[in-house]
Amino acid sequence: ASMPSSNFIQNIIDEDARTNKHQGRVHTRFPPEPNGYLHIGHAKSICLNFGIAAQNGGLCNLRFDDTNPSKEDVEYVDSIQEDVRWLGFDWQDRMFYASDYFGRLYEYAVLLIRKGKAYVCDLSAQEIRDYRGTLTQPGQESPYRNRSVAENLDLFERMRQGEFPDGSRVLRAKIDMASPNLNMRDPVLYRILRSHHHRTGNQWCIYPMYDYAHPLSDAIEKVTHSICTLEFEDHRPLYDWVLAAVEHEYRPQQIEFARLNLNYTVMSKRKLRELVEQKYVNGWDDPRMPTISGLRRRGYTPEAIRDFCDRIGVAKSNSIVDIALLEHCIREDLNARAMRAMAVLRPLKVVIDNYPEGVTEELAAENNPEKPEMGNRTIPFSRELFIEQEDFCENPPKKFFRLAPGQEVRLKHAYIIKCERVVKDGAGNVVAVHCTYDPDTKSGGAASGKKVKGTLHWVSAAHAVKAEARLYDNLFNVENPDEGEDYKTNLNPNSLDVLQCFVEPGLAAAEPGTRYQFLRQGYFCVDTVDSRPGQLVFNRIVSLRDSWAK
Ligand code: ATP
Ligand code: MG
Ligand code: MG
Questions:
Q1: ipTM exceeding cut-off 0.85 for this assembly
Q2: What distance lies between CA 441 and its chain's CA centroid?
Q3: Atom 3 of ligand 1: nearest residue by CA position
Q4: Pairwise CA distance, residues 266 & 41, whole Å
Q5: Which of 71, 126, 300, 316 is deepest in the core (most CB within 10 A)?
Q6: Architecture of 16-257 per CATH?
Q7: CB atoms < 10 A from the CB of 445, how many?
Q8: Other beta carbons within 10 Å of 300
């Protein structure tokens, strides 16, 4: 995993090294809140934080930012670790929880009160909002702002002891109600909330706010560069204020970068959770989800995701990345390494009338033309085959180089066949195509040089293995699903198409997670959840058509 060295964050780090700002150290962290599964946007942050550390001989922590117990769960803690590891990153012995610091954060709050920099406020949440003012109007000071240190210490202690109901009081920083930055108008540092925490249980009934807990957690871990997304730019003065106010020995610096947005995708955990909970998808790892677990189950490789994160780079202004780039990355990766196989997704019977009955020929097929060292396999050929329905046309348009009455095509790795006649059912549908083959045209044989315009994939009917193919399309049918009233109205009703297909018999024992290129169809992965021996399930990772404009 590598990051391009020429991003603006690396420039900052180079400059810091020159001025010895952090005594030459580089220490980053990836700080997910365990309130959902990680998505491809998080992958960008993971690659960036771990990549910057690796590139500069530094360290990167995994820190669970678990200060909001009502939405958090160990299920998410576990999935986050699995996903970061799967992406190829290692936090070694540096996995931390903000909740481990609750005791110290409390002590720092007491210190702020002692220094006259924090006070207990009895205004309601609505009143606090009303008093805050607007961008054009200064705020109004809380009537509780000038409580004595002694009274604040007493009230804060009693908040902790559980004497007051949820929401009745908060601890606020005493900064400046006239600040042009709304975040500096006496922000809330602690709230009362009786909520079971997945690690600290019912030990606490007051919880620190993000803007207070985050800078202190960074400083406690001796982080040097605290990389976050752009929406926190306006919070940076508060980040710095907290560290200065407690006179912390370590002063990490916050650096903001543009979050990843992808077209045809939503990327907020709240929305992804809603899709899962309201069963628009089959779980967080549904292969249509932009989650790491969804991409993994779909068949994406960590290499392709890291390559994608490298290519999108790191910038200071928001933009929307074309999902075609992500697809391009997985195609490139799998083109180089995936085994080729033949699978017929929508079967049409072909009978080769001049091929002997009861005979099976084993034909040689290369496993990957990009990598001869991957060797060959054999595939059975016999009198009755399946081809794709769309590869036959009874009344073909011009330039239809596939099978049509009187027309010849090559069957990949096999022979040239010619269509002689069709068989139809009562409704006039073609149910079988009768052909003859030319025994002299065997692929690789002496007379294989005969040219025809089309080459089709196929499977032998008697030998093929029945399987389920799941074809995925974008989960949303508009580029920006967030535009408009409710993103859910933009869900694509045809995002999943389930087909009964036939695959070559060598795939009968395919292991879950194995990826193949099905010739002319796309890249497929054996589903890790639903596939069983005898009941194989293949997820289409991506089709072969690359729409990425380089
Ligand atoms: P969401 O808004 O989806 O809930 P979040 O930012 O609240 O995301 P966190 O768990 O707090 O989710 O994120 C952990 C880290 O990942 C943060 O540093 C955050 O900046 C980063 N991150 C989250 N989403 C993206 C994204 N789309 N692109 C880049 N980084 C992201
Ligand atoms: Mg967050
Ligand atoms: Mg969030």
A1: yes
A2: 47
A3: 268
A4: 10
A5: 300
A6: 3-Layer(aba) Sandwich (3.40)
A7: 11
A8: 26
The predicted structure's pLDDT at residue 424: 97
Q: Are 329 and 67 a contacting pair, CB within 8 Å? A: no
Of residues 32, 27, 31, the one with CA closest to residue 52: 27
Residue type, 427: A
Nearest CA to 74 among 168, 201, 207? 201
User: What is the CA(32)–ligand 3 centre distance, in A?
Assistant: 9
Residue in the block written with tokens 């949440």? 125
Q: pLDDT averaged over the chain?
A: 96
Superfamily of domain 269-339+467-542: Ribosomal Protein L25; Chain P (2.40.240.10)
Tokens of residue 342, six digits: 């033949």
Residue 327: what pLDDT?
A: 98
What pLDDT score was predicted for residue 6? 65
d(CA 422, CA 419): 8
Identified catalytic residue from 94, 145, 222, 259 = 259
State the span(s) of the chain assigned CATH 2.40.240.10.
269-339+467-542, 347-457
Has residue 549 got a pLDDT over 90? no
Q: What is the pLDDT, as a whole number, of residue 4? A: 47
Nearest to 323 by CA among 548, 57, 171: 548
Averaged over 378-395, what is the pLDDT?
A: 98
**Can you say whether the dihedral through the CA atoms of 350, 355, 358, 364 is positive or negative?**
negative
Residues annotated within a binding site for ATP: 33-35, 39-45, 229, 259-260, 267-269
Among 29, 269, 288, 383, the one annotated catalytic: 269
Marked catalytic residue, from 21, 33, 141, 273:
33
pLDDT at 445 over 90: no
Residue 5 has pLDDT above 60, yes or no: no
Residue 123, amino acid: L
CA distance 447 to 439: 9
The average pLDDT across 366-372 equals: 96
- Say how far residue 185 (Cα) sits from the centre of its chain: 36
Residue type, 183: N
Asked if 467 and 507 touch (Cβ cutoff 8 Å), the reply is yes
Active site residue 259: yes
Whose atoms come closest to the Cα of 256: which ligand? 1
**Model confidence pLDDT, tens digit, residues 465-522:** 999 999 999 999 999 999 988 999 999 999 999 999 999 999 999 999 999 999 999 9
Regarding the beta carbon of 269 and ligand 1, being less than 6 Å apart is answered yes
Question: Minimum-distance ligand to the CA of 43?
Answer: 1
Pick the CATH number of 347-457 from 3.40.50.11540, 2.30.29.30, 2.40.240.10, 3.20.20.140: 2.40.240.10
Mean pLDDT of 165-170: 98
Burial pattern 325-341, b for ≥16 Cβ within 10 A else e, equals bbbbbbbebbbeebbbb
28-71 residue pLDDT tens: 999 999 999 999 999 999 999 999 999 999 999 999 999 999 99
Burial, 429: exposed, middle or buried (Cβ in 10 Å; 0-12, 13-18, 19+)?
A: exposed
Q: Is 162 left (phi over 0), alpha (psi -120 to 50) or beta?
A: left
